Amino acid sequence: MHLDGQDPAAREDPQEFQELARSAGAETVGFVNVSRHQPSAKFLIGSGKVEELHDLVKEGEAELVIFNHTLTPSQERNLERALECRVLDRTGLILDIFAQRARTHEGKLQVELAQLEHMSTRLVRGWTHLERQKGGIGLRGPGETQLETDRRLLRVRIRQIKQRLEKVRGQREQARRGRRRADIPSVSLVGYTNAGKSTLFNALTESEVYAANQLFATLDPTLRRLELEDVGPVILADTVGFIRHLPHKLVESFRATLEESSNADLLLHVIDAHEPERDQQIEQVLAVLGEIGANELPMLEVYNKLDLLEGIEPQIQRDADGKPQRVWVSARDGLGLDLLRQAVAELLGDDLFVGTLCLPQRLGRLRAQFFELGAVQRETHDEEGGSLLEVRLPRVELNRLISREGLRVDEFIEQHTLQ
């Protein structure tokens, strides 16, 4: 059931809705499009349409009616009574897809949290059997109704999941601190669902992350190490896709996962170049990035699925300062991936030190470290036996090595010489 209204901010895409239902495994019996500018408080749609929908449900023997909109708890209950079958709104549908896709323990916890918080607003039925999760007997307080028991059990479970996810968040932050100490930059793939992030991730890292032409194929974040010329190792993260009007409960529940994006040194915004509504999808991704505090991070736009377009070659488009701004690639066919690596290396390594260092013999250990990093382009020697190293490496890495030896970095940078 799709409702067409005049408010463009609340507008949903009927084609995307059908794709969501297909991704959830639903077998579509019929699609109903209703034009209504003023939603009804009781049913969202008019009572006449409800009767018409009831007849369609009986005729098609449908077991479930899905609305491409957010329903209030009372609207959902009223519709279930009138249609005599289960009713699901857009949020419930997305939650169901997430529940199917979750693979890791963390992902399952995040989905359960979002589902329980969604359910808590709809918990009004007299008997929901939630007490069976805890055994029931002995848990009910004196004079406590079944509804109060269910609500209390929900609160207890939600608190338990939040505590577990807080531990996960701490572990992720510890891992990120370790990477920062090692000065390994992190790059996070973000984008609208089904834009091709996982296919691009696999192509860049030679991994085998699950990728499919369906919405929310990737739910659990995956990290891989990637070697880039002039930069060295970077950590590439594949994250959950965004969607218009992504339920706020999901953004909250997946905050631990989405922090991989909000703490990245660079975001690769993967865009489906073949999608007719790509501009609206870009807006939605930027809106979610704003919610998680990642909208100010450096970003490179990656226009993917170039193989579906005619007359456009793989290329890097630059801004007025010459910085890479947009790269056109085909992750599926491997077109333009070398250009993407080049653009990422430029953006991460824009603060490169390129010059000659004069290291006296007593700093032999420091000399060895430069060689270990692969930063030495050429080595010669001066009259006193010191090493003249032509090096190329990130300035952050250079500062780290110098400060370890107790040397003054500012003097070194000015003179490009260590004595």
TrEMBL record:
Assembly and oligomerization: Monomer. Associates with the 50S ribosomal subunit.
Cofactor: Mg(2+)
Gene Ontology MF term list: GTP binding; GTPase activity; guanosine tetraphosphate binding; metal ion binding; ribosome binding
GO CC, alphabetical: cytoplasm
Binding residue positions for Mg(2+): S198, T218
Signal peptide interval: none
Boundaries of every Hflx-type G domain copy: 185-352
Record keyword Metal-binding present: yes
InterPro entries membership: EFG_III/V (IPR035647), G_HFLX_dom (IPR030394), GTP-bd (IPR006073), GTP-bd_M (IPR032305), GTPase_HflX (IPR016496), GTPase_HflX_N (IPR025121), GTPase_HflX_N_sf (IPR042108), P-loop_NTPase (IPR027417)
Cell location: Cytoplasm
Role played: GTPase that associates with the 50S ribosomal subunit and may have a role during protein synthesis or ribosome biogenesis.
Keyword terms of this UniProt record: Coiled coil, Cytoplasm, GTP-binding, Magnesium, Metal-binding, Nucleotide-binding
Pfam hit, one: GTP-bdg_M
Coiled coil segments of this chain: 151-178
Protein name from the UniProt record: GTPase HflX
List of residues binding GTP: 191-198, 216-220, 238-241, 304-307, 330-332
Protein family: Belongs to the TRAFAC class OBG-HflX-like GTPase superfamily. HflX GTPase family.
